[in-house]
Amino acid sequence: MATLTVTVTAPRRAWLTDLPVLLVAVVWGASYLAAKGIITDTTVLAVLVLRFAVVLPALAVAGWTALRGLSVAQWRGAGLLGLILSGIFLLETYGVVHTSATNAGLIISLTMIFTPLAEAAVTRTRPSRTFLAAAALSVAGVVLLTQSGGITAPSAGDLLMLLAALARTVHVLAMARIRSVRGAEALPLTTVQLGAAVVVFALLCAAPGAGATPWEAAAAFGPGQWAGLVFLSVFCTLFAFFVQMWAVHRTSPSRVSLLLGTEPLWAAAAGIAIGGERLGPLGLLGAVFVLAGTAWGRRATA
């Protein structure tokens, strides 16, 4: 009887943990379409300031004690990571303005391929043939994805998303190699990074010809734009962060990573089902290649 109880309840407990993490992947996938609905070329910086300024107070209050416990070196390391993070968000946000939500979500998933390749280059180790084959499949998928409308040069948005994937790789490597932040707790580290990024966005906003100010953008928002901003701030940032912190203590990091790795699938689903985007035969084949290649590569490095 006891054995039966364990066998039945363990999967239920696992799913109670998996479900919120999977929901994070869903909202992250939907974030590209949400961003397209509220951002234009002239409001990128303003929306970035608003998005993160909304959640920073909550993060600061939740992690106030840990923030006060950070050393000067940890503040400096987290601030440097925040500068890299600001570059990632700038590339992603400008990129999604100039490409489809589907393309954005699929191209950014190449981070899962770029990161092991970069680690191999830094450590001077040769990736396995299986991983190299997965990487080649993913790259071929991106090429097909960006040519879904015919043989043309990739759009500016596609190239920006590709740069964003590379920037994400730099961020991951920097987190692993900056000694001062290795022992820091996730909450204060994230708070300092987002704070540094907001400072960068605010300074860029103040530059001449930078576009709308946060106040002008906020004043022009209708109910739909405010709903999109709340979704990006509360669900894609605050909710996602706390779910990850909660989940890593209740399941394995590998399981969390596997579930979050479904983000590009949800990005494509949102873009096609809700955004009415169309890929065409080449684009659909490319999407399949990207999803298969990144999943294969993730298993090869597990």
From TrEMBL:
Q: Where in the cell is it found?
A: Cell membrane
Any Pfam family from its record, for instance, is EamA
Print the keywords alphabetically.
Cell membrane, Membrane, Transmembrane, Transmembrane helix
Read off the InterPro entries from this record.
Diverse_Substrate_Transporter, EamA_dom, EmrE-like
Enumerate the transmembrane spans.
21-39, 45-67, 79-97, 103-122, 131-153, 190-212, 224-244
Q: How does it sit in the membrane?
A: Multi-pass membrane protein
Q: Which family does it belong to?
A: Belongs to the EamA transporter family.
Q: What is the name attached to this protein's record?
A: DMT family transporter
